[in-house]
Amino acid sequence: MTLVRQAALLLWKDVVVELRAKELVYATVFFAAIVILVFAFAFLGGERPSVDVSAGVLWVAMALAGTLGIGRAFEREREGDTMRALLLSPMPRAAIYLSKLVAISLLMLLVEAVSATLLSLLFGVSLTEHLLPLCALLGLGTFGFAAVAALFGASLGRARSRDVLLPLLTYPIVVPILIAGTRGSVALLVGQPEGLATAIWWLKFLVVFDAIFITLGLWVFDPIMRGDS
Amino acid sequence: MKRLLALLAILFFLGAPAFAAQPKPDAEGFVPVSGAMMQPGETIPANRLVAAAYGFIFAALAVYVASVVARSRRVEAEMRELQRKLEAKNG
Amino acid sequence: MKPRLWFFAAVLLSAIGLIVAPQLIVAAPREATMGLVQKIFYYHVPSAWVCVLAAFVCAGGSAAYLFTGSEAGDRVAAAAGELTVLFGLCVLVTGPLWARKAWGTWWQWDVRLTTTLLMWMIFVAYLFARKYGGPGAKKLAAGLALFGAADVPLIYLSVSIWRTIHPKTTVVKTLDPAMQGPFWTAFATFTVLFFVLLELRLSLERARSRLDALHLAAEDQLDE
């Protein structure tokens, strides 16, 4: 399993860099909190909004904060020209892709933990009732999102309008994941007896999509990055 | 890499049966109307909708062909310009 | 570059089709419950078919470009990507016009509609990526096209997976004999039309790459 070890090594590098700078974590967590607050101001004027709205807010915050963090992470790579160095190194491209995928997922999971807590405080939804399936939904959703965003974030490295293009390219592709995540979360948060079965169906949907996206990502990452080294 | 792909394939096939388990649709089809061709009170708006639909498709195709032709002309003009410059330089 | 014989034949065929199909459609029987508005079907479904066909051609060309570096593959992908957006737009405009009458609403967040819109947006993003992606945009766009094509089977299956108000794909197989003629004429016409437009767009793309080559050659000469 050398590929996994190499990916873990690269992941460790990213984690150490981020632990020293802490820029990404602070920025994205704060941004996600702001997004949720903006939604709270918009929706919490009168009566309490439905569960659909709360679940939607959570996933929208995750998508927005995720794109922000990913854009910034690759911007940092570009400034130091480290992505180029990585691509020139004898590391297999698949390991580079996997490490980026996991690094982004870790960042986004952290953001989601904070924003879910904030959401339960502001919107009054109970997260603890089905905590485990909810975590699974968020985890799988994040993984699928990161699989697409890592690919495009890395390959947009030198495009002039990369800040605009990253969400433009990523969102249409990951919409199935956002739909699955939102519908699954709604089913869990409403608290109906059949909710768990619905959520599990959406979990399976997410597994299929993650498998498709990660396979495509691994397959395509190498040829896409080939000209750039 | 191979093991990873195999793992992903397994995940895919584990999840895939979920789709198959969904209820199957019943067969449906369009039924042609027999007898009176006009249904009172529906012809005019339906006419407009159908006309708009067909009009849009023809317009879209025409605009697209025109745009491709215009772009081709521009490329050809640029090519002639370039050749003229080259000839002026060489000749 | 001489336009080939098959191209003229195809232009002729699609022209005949475009004249004959509307007449057949006008003569076709009216549908019992939906009435006249069901006639949108004869162009709506072939547009959808061509849209999917173009998406697969685009993905095929992209795959060829990504994995073998074929420039011709990239040109095919560029041309087919534009056609996917064009015919997708036709589907997305004619659909709501039909729905207004049949369902009483322009748009419904139905699975089939949502996934079609999604695929269309992916290919709009593909065109964006090609135009504004900067260096390496072609490869990036090619990757995007593969993701877009991965979405297509989902669209096709969506109608059998979820309960939906959109007519099922089986409607074509069980079509009334009197409706078969006009439908398949329109279907064939659109398919031929797709290849005509593809070739037209490809000739533009070929002219562009000749121009680029000429520019490169001219730079050397003019700089001397």
Q: How much of the residues of chain A is beta strand, in percent?
A: under 5%
Please estimate the helix content of chain C: over 70%
Number of domains of chain C: 1
Secondary-structure class of chain C: mainly alpha
User: Radius of gyration of chain A, Cα only, in angstroms?
Assistant: 18 Å
* Beta strand % of chain C: under 5%
Quick one: biggest sheet of chain A?
none
| Total DSSP E strands of chain C | 0
Helix-strand sequence of chain A: HHHHHHHH
Number of strands of chain A: 0
Helix-strand sequence of chain C:
HHHHHH
Instruction: Report how far apart the termini of chain C are.
Output: 30 Å
How confident overall, as mean pLDDT of chain C? Answer: 81
The largest sheet of chain C is: none
What characteristic shape of chain C results from the CA principal axes?
globular
- Number of separate helices of chain C: 6
In terms of quaternary structure, the protein is heterotrimer
| Biggest chain-to-chain interface with counts | B-C, 44 and 57 residues
**Rounded radius of gyration of chain C (Å):** 20 Å
Poorly predicted runs of 5 or more residues of chain C: none
Question: Would you mind describing this structure in some detail?
Answer:
The complex is a heterotrimer of chains A (229), B (91) and C (224). Chain A has helices spanning 2-21, 23-43, 51-80, 82-88, 93-123, 131-155, 162-190, 195-226. Chain A is mostly helical and 229 residues long. Chain A has one domain (2-226). In chain A, helix 5 packs across helix 6 and helix 7 runs antiparallel to helix 8. By secondary structure, chain B is mainly α. Chain B has a domain at 44-91. In chain B, 73% of the residues lie in helices and 0% in strands. Chain B has three helices and no strands. Chain B has helices spanning 2-15, 17-20, 43-90. Chain B is flat and about 70 Å long. Chain C is mainly alpha-helical. Chain C has one domain. Chain C has helices at 5-27, 41-68, 71-102, 111-132, 137-161, 177-223. In chain C, helix 2 packs across helix 5 (137-161). The mean pLDDT of chain C is 81. The chains are: A mainly alpha (229), B mainly alpha (91), C mainly alpha (224).
